[in-house]
Amino acid sequence: MKKAIIIVLRFVRINKELVRAMLRSNKRYLRIYMHSLKFIRPEVAIDSKIRTKAHIVDKSIHSLPFQRGRGVSNAIFLKSLLSTQNLPDSVKVRNWAENILNLYEKKQEQPDLEVYENLHYENYPSILEVLKTRVSVRNFKRLKPELTDLNKAVEVALTAPSSCHRQPAFFYHIRKDEQIKAARSCIAGSTGFTYDNIPVITVVSADIRSYSPRDGETYIVDTALAAENYVLGLRLLGIGSTIMNWAHANNAQITKLKQLCKIPAHEEIITTVAIGYPEKLPLKPSSTSAESRSIAVE
Questions:
Q1: Would you identify the CATH topology of the domain 125-276?
Q2: C-beta atoms surrounding 263 within 10 Å
Q3: pLDDT tens track for 16-34
Q4: Pick from 171, 297, 166, 165: which is nearest to 241 by CA?
Q5: What does the pLDDT look like over 23-82, one tens digit per residue?
Q6: Which residues, at least 6 apart from 128, have a Cβ–Cβ distance to it below 8 Å?
Q7: Do residues 190 and 184 touch, judged by C-beta distance below 8 A?
Q8: Cα(first)–Cα(last) distance of the chain, in Å?
Q9: Taking Cα atoms as reference points, which of 209, 199, 109, 193 lies closest to residue 147?
Q10: Torsion 153-257-26-36 (CA) sign
Q11: Is 273 helix (H, G, I), strand (E, B) or coil?
Q12: Which of 147, 214, 245, 262 is the Cys-Cys partner for 189 at CB 3.0 to 4.6 Å?
């Protein structure tokens, strides 16, 4: 028994960082679990519930072959959500969900009702070129991008796919120099910038209320997809960006940055992005060949 205790103590001494990481991970999953329990309450995160249920109803409308009655329980749940007095702030989401529900009811009466767009997929060489030429920028001009342009990039971000249309991503833009300095003290990846200059930092977080521990890291994947779209949207606007390392943040740094941005307890910070107009564009790093990463499963 004594020998076993000694081995455990040695393991802990040698693997302090591993143990800390495990504790942080367990604490994160505990937060997710607690917020997922709150999410069950009917008055919590109605906007998210409406998006998810409308998405499921929408899938039943577009299923082939169409089946009458499919998704009826979700349609009933969606109708009850839309009739509640505590309505979401997003009129756009509510209108979309009501249209989905109306279309569902029409489809039940007219199964042959056409609900598909005309097939018109096209090639966009110029857009492909933009995607291929996006590069991490650390040489920024002093000029700060306007909030209106950042909002345009967020619009692009929110077109990214997410599981059951949960759209967990939020974008907090830090533009004041003293707040940027405070934020940088929390972000391990905020080094190596020319003239030590970062005009704007965007903190990307995820609303975890509609996820349970059973979903694992899904909320990270959903938000990461939005973050990718965000930096591509910035590129389309002529704005440079670098996704900075956030994985090394400790609990004190996480708390400090959340307080700085006034991020609520039910959101987890996923990543941070340095933003500005490029002074100099670095050479694009060589990418791994597509042939070596594209594998046909036989």
A1: NADH Oxidase (3.40.109)
A2: 17
A3: 554 555 555 566 667 766 7
A4: 171
A5: 555 666 677 667 776 666 666 678 888 888 888 898 888 887 888 898 899 999 899 888
A6: none
A7: yes
A8: 51
A9: 199
A10: negative
A11: strand
A12: 245
**Three-state DSSP state, 94:** helix
Q: At residue 197, what is the residue type?
A: N
- Residue 6 has a pLDDT of 54
Q: What is the pLDDT of residues 182-203, one digit of tens each?
A: 999 999 999 889 889 999 999 9
pLDDT for 297 equals: 93
Task: List the one residue out of 240, 251, 237, 244 whose CA is nearest residue 280.
Answer: 240
Domain residue ranges of the chain, discontinuous segments joined by +: 46-109, 125-276
Is the distance from CB of 207 to CB of 170 less than 8 angstroms?
yes
The DSSP symbol for 141 reads: -
Q: Is the link from the previous residue into 65 a cis peptide, with omega within 30 of 0?
A: yes
pLDDT beyond 70 at 95 = yes
